[in-house]
Amino acid sequence: MRTIDRNPRQPLPPLTTARLTPPRRTLDIALALTLLLLLAPLLMLLALLVRTMSGRPVLFRQRRTGEGGREFTLYKFRSMRDGCTGPGVTGGSDPRVTGTGELLRRLSLDELPQLWNVLRGDMTLVGPRPEVPHLARRYPPEHRWVFRHRPGLTGPCQLRSRVYAALLEGRPDPEEYYLAVLVPQRTALDAEFLRRATVPNVVRFIARTFWYVLSSPWDSPGRRENGPRGSRGGGS
Fold first, then answer.
1. What value does the mean pLDDT of the chain take?
2. How far apart are CA 175 and CA 4, in angstroms?
3. Separation of alpha carbons 217 and 219, rounded Å
4. CA atoms lying within 13 Å on the CB side of residue 208
5. For residues 203 and 91, which has the higher predicted lDDT (pLDDT)?
6. pTM for this structure?
7. Burial per residue of 49-87, b for 16 or more beta-carbon CB atoms within 10 angstroms, e otherwise
8. Above 90 in pLDDT, residue 22?
9. Distance from the Cα of residue 20 to its chain's centroid
10. Where would I find the H helices in the chain?
11. Are 220 and 236 in contact (CB under 8 A)?
């Protein structure tokens, strides 16, 4: 296993930006705005659920590494206990996750506020997973190219998030394992998608994501551990 730099303060080197094409940005705005309007009642209901069951704050705000290595604030419905500390990666049975948060995570509902990040231009609909800065700074140098690209609400790594969480379970140093073993796998999947990041392929991947989310309540444990079918075609 390669040795990973444990210094979280080491800055990322300067990165050129791989900007979105105008058709992809147009799709981002159109779909994010439409979904925010259509899902407004659900978003209010989920906010009330989190507020009632877990208290404040309802939204979880966290700095993430975005396009060109620049940081932005990512928004999610809070799924962990407020004020808890721990690794920057989450295993399959992380004790920090609340009961309500476990339900939200299973149905991917905690991610819905990121539609606002897509509308703002911090994120895109399909792309690499937005990484926390202290882990991004510790990426092996040969995999830091991924931070040239705008992170995505969904993507090949996001649709394997349950698989990765299971692999982190019980590791003595989950961050070390994540950086040394999972990051090379994840960036390989991202590279495969980014080579074909056309609007038709983005639309197909969004359709796969909808199916993945809708089918998740009926996934068997074995299927979850093997990962979603077709996830390579395209994931705290």
1. 84
2. 10
3. 6
4. 22
5. 203
6. 0.83
7. bbeeebeeebebeeebbbbbbeebebbbbbbbeeeeeeb
8. yes
9. 18
10. 22-38, 40-54, 99-106, 114-120, 133-136, 161-168, 174-177, 183-194, 199-215, 221-226
11. no
